[in-house]
Automatic annotation (TrEMBL), chain A:
GO molecular function: ATP binding; ATP hydrolysis activity; L-isoleucine transmembrane transporter activity; L-phenylalanine transmembrane transporter activity; L-valine transmembrane transporter activity
Keyword Cell division: no
The organism's taxonomic lineage, starting at the top: Bacteria, Pseudomonadati, Pseudomonadota, Alphaproteobacteria, Hyphomicrobiales
Gene Ontology biological process: D-alanine transmembrane transport; L-alanine transport; L-isoleucine import across plasma membrane; L-valine import across plasma membrane
Identification of the protein by name: ABC transporter ATP-binding protein
Species the sequence originates in: Mesorhizobium kowhaii
Pfam families in alphabetical order: ABC_tran (PF00005), BCA_ABC_TP_C (PF12399)
SMART domains in alphabetical order: AAA (SM00382)
UniProtKB/TrEMBL annotation, chain B:
Keyword Cell membrane: yes
Membrane topology designation: Multi-pass membrane protein
Top-level taxon: Bacteria
Record PANTHER family: HIGH-AFFINITY BRANCHED-CHAIN AMINO ACID TRANSPORT PROTEIN BRAE (PTHR30482:SF10), HIGH-AFFINITY BRANCHED-CHAIN AMINO ACID TRANSPORT SYSTEM PERMEASE (PTHR30482)
MF-aspect GO terms: branched-chain amino acid transmembrane transporter activity
Subcellular location(s) of the protein: Cell membrane
Recorded coiled-coil stretches: none
Protein name stated in the entry: Branched-chain amino acid ABC transporter permease
Keywords (A to Z) from UniProt: Cell membrane, Membrane, Transmembrane, Transmembrane helix
An annotated GO cellular component: plasma membrane
Segments traversing the membrane: 50-79, 91-115, 171-189, 222-243, 255-282, 294-313
Annotated signal sequence range: none
Length: 254, 318
């Protein structure tokens, strides 16, 4: 059974059909990519998967469990984390506080135990903090832990968003254009980091990316969208050779 | 993940900074000895200031932490005052026992108003809370049990270990204890999982939902905690005044509390305490200005908004 199974997913805004009967799956432990020209509906698909948009029809299953139509926080708790295309950090808070935020759904102490300073609450806080530091270390920005997130370089902000998502201990992580705005060197580091996410933490990765070099290099399977439809789905070699993909890309890019 | 590279010190909570702790201790020490040197008038004004400190700290949870605009906060203050007042005056209940009842009543009121409205965007919320504040006041005006427009009289003075709180000084110390307790509670929660969740929601609701925070529940908890604090302040206020009327809980009162939160710099405790004290002192300081008082107040507020838009003692982050 695949970790993520999307079946006949449909989405529209008013008269505008954004997704037409999308079906695909992601196997556990894979690194897969979702590509397509601007406006193809990639981010909209992520928004459906994570509960930000309510699909018009179809079903989404995570580890066999239906998650269609659940609110975002429930879906995160069930093991699906994401990053955003236009970075959405808590810029006014510290880097560490951002990393700690991911563990909210994995911890339980509330207002009363905080007021009473219960030992179990102190221990949980300590744990949230050290785990946050560990994820900062994983993505390589631990030295910035006590700076404000908004003051980080662009590349480090992307890393922090990844650390925050990983801190929710997901089974599947969705990365929306993680390489956007990075230079060639940073892109190489990112490829390395994405592989480490899968290899060292076992988290399955599905990413949206425009950089074909990066996509071909990192993904085992690629799904291609154009005008809200899936036009291809397969290995990088198969997708690269697919006439419909070539046509879609010739039409929009050079 | 190489454990060895993690510096243990970096993983520790930021240590108490002496630059913050010492001034705070000094302020508390001054507050403790103030009635020994001050006359009854000054002690009375200081007691009012402490009341505003408690109320502003409570509202700060809603406005400063969770980022919700609440224009009817005095309603929860009224719920506490009337609950305690009615239970002591009409039913002869011991003052201290009325506090948990008032807290529970404030919780219920918080849920009734919060649960349906906290899904709304914050500008709608402001209007709904404004309406709620007025409704509570109008209900108090029209019920028999609340004493109608003239209010409740003959509220019992509380006793503690056989000692009856009577004089201005007694209530000054009672409010000081409540203010310190409230500050401790706020500080504890601010630095906890739920406190951080409020800040996440305030800074970016979508990102907060995306990392697994139930935003409606987080907002509701902030709202209820704010309500509970106001209700406890209300209990002690009723006991101090021995008589309360709907006119103590007007929209103006809500605005003054909000002003205290915003004036000092919402979000963090020192700024809010400063704002609360200013709100209580301003009318006294400006007594000499006579009929020009509203003008002077307005100009002072405008100047603050222009030159210190984040408050007099803002949270460094904002
Ligand atoms: N909330 C919304 N309301 C109305 N239309 C929307 C909304 N979100 C997306 N769309 C539309 O859906 C279509 C797909 O947008 P989407 O952002 O999913 O594309 P994308 O593949 O992520 O593109 P890009 O590569 O530029 O990020 C676009 O035509 C967009 O205008
Ligand atoms: Mg997109």
């Amino acid at each position: 059974m695949a970790l993520l199974e999307v079946r006949d997913l449909r989405l529209s805004f008013g008269g505008l059909k954004v997704l037409h009967d999308i079906s695909f799956s992601v196997e556990k432990g894979a690194i897969n990519s979702l590509i397509g020209p601007n406006g193809a509906g990639k981010t909209s698909l992520f928004n459906c998967l994570t509960g930000f948009y309510k699909p018009k029809g179809g079903s989404i299953r995570l580890g066999g469990r239906p998650i269609t139509g659940l609110p975002p926080h429930r879906i995160t708790a069930l093991g699906l984390a994401r990053t955003f295309q236009n970075i959405r950090l808590f810029k006014e808070m510290t880097v560490l506080e951002n990393a700690m935020s991911g563990q909210h759904c994995r911890s339980r102490h509330g207002i009363v135990s905080a007021i009473l300073h219960l030992p179990s609450q102190r221990r949980e806080e300590e744990n949230i903090r050290t785990t946050g530091m560990r994820w900062l270390d994983f993505v390589g920005i631990q030295q910035h832990a006590h700076r404000l997130a908004g003051g980080l370089s662009y590349g480090d902000q992307r890393r922090l968003e990844l650390a925050r998502a990983l801190a929710s201990t997901p089974e599947l992580i969705l990365l929306d254009e993680p390489a956007a705005g990075l230079n060639e060197r940073e892109k190489l580091d990112l490829v390395h980091l994405i592989r480490r996410v899968r290899d060292e933490t076992g988290v399955t990765v599905l990413l949206i990316e425009h950089d074909m070099g990066l996509v071909m290099q990192v993904s085992e399977k690629i799904v291609v969208f154009d005008y809200g439809q899936k036009i291809a789905d397969g290995t990088p070699e198969a997708v690269r050779a697919d006439p419909r993909v070539i046509e879609a890309y010739l039409g929009t890019e050079d | 993940m190489t454990e060895a590279r993690i510096l243990p010190a970096a993983a520790q909570p930021r240590l108490m900074r002496w630059s913050v702790v010492l001034p705070a201790l000094a302020a508390v020490a001054c507050a403790l000895v103030l009635p020994q040197f001050a006359n009854a008038y000054v002690t009375e004004v200081a007691t009012t200031a402490l009341l505003y400190v408690v109320l502003c700290l409570g509202l700060n949870i809603v406005v400063g932490y969770a980022g919700l605009l609440d224009l009817g906060y005095a309603a929860f203050f009224a719920v506490g005052a009337y609950t305690s007042g009615i239970l002591t005056a009409e039913f002869g209940l011991n003052f201290w026992l009325t506090i948990p009842v008032a807290m529970a009543a404030a919780c219920v009121a918080g849920i009734i108003i919060g649960a349906p409205t906290l899904r709304l965007r914050s500008d709608y919320l402001a209007i709904v809370t404004l309406g709620f504040g007025e409704i509570v006041r109008i209900i108090a005006r029209n019920l028999d049990i609340t004493g109608g427009a003239s209010g409740l009289i003959g509220i019992e003075r509380p006793e503690i270990f056989g000692f009856k709180l009577m004089q201005v000084q007694h209530f000054y110390y009672a409010f000081l204890v409540l203010a310190l307790l409230t500050a401790f509670v706020c500080l504890s929660v601010e630095r906890s999982r739920m406190g951080r969740a409020w800040f996440y929601v305030r800074y970016d609701e979508d990102a907060a939902a995306g990392i697994g925070i139930n935003r409606v529940s987080a907002k509701l908890q902030a709202y209820m905690m704010g309500a509970v604090i106001a209700s406890v302040a209300g209990c002690l206020y009723a006991a101090k005044m021995t008589a309360i009327s709907p006119e103590s809980f007007t929209f103006n009162q809500s605005l003054l509390i909000l002003l205290g939160v915003v004036l000092g710099g919402m979000g963090r405790i020192p700024g809010v305490v400063l704002g609360a004290i200013l709100v209580a002192l301003l009318p006294e300081v400006l007594r000499g200005a006579g009929t020009y008082r509203p003008l002077v107040t307005a100009v002072a507020l405008l100047a603050i908004m222009l030159f210190r838009p984040n408050g007099l003692w803002p949270d460094k982050r904002v």
